[in-house]
Input
Amino acid sequence: MALNVGDKIPDVLGTDQDGKTINASDYKGSKLVLYFYPKDNTPGCTAEACSFRDNFSQLRKAGYQILGVSVDDEKSHKKFIEKQQLPFPLIADTDKKLVEAFGVWGEKTLAGRKYMGTFRTTFLINESGVIDKIIGPKEIKTKEHADQILNQ
Output
């Protein structure tokens, strides 16, 4: 049962790269870009994260906080953040609770091989913790993703 536009997001979101619990209530009063991505340090995911990094001040001016999520562990996230100098936290969803709650975990195909993975998806959440917009995998342009959010 995936979350949809108009749904309130769960309060407990998971733990970040430092093992700190991240709650939706931490972001109350701010708009939140909650973006799910397949894997740390891969070309598309790096381009997307860097788009948010490079436009971080404009996103903040527009009232957004940024929070990334993948099923990679805390150690992987820490390396990714350091390597790319990311100014925002990444949730280590190793138990896949969040990707399943948001409906972004499923069967994917690459070169004819089927496997389970995360569908690149972004949720724009309002100041009350309610989903205002969902940007799906086919809509996201990784290198321009921050612009897509700022120019909507």
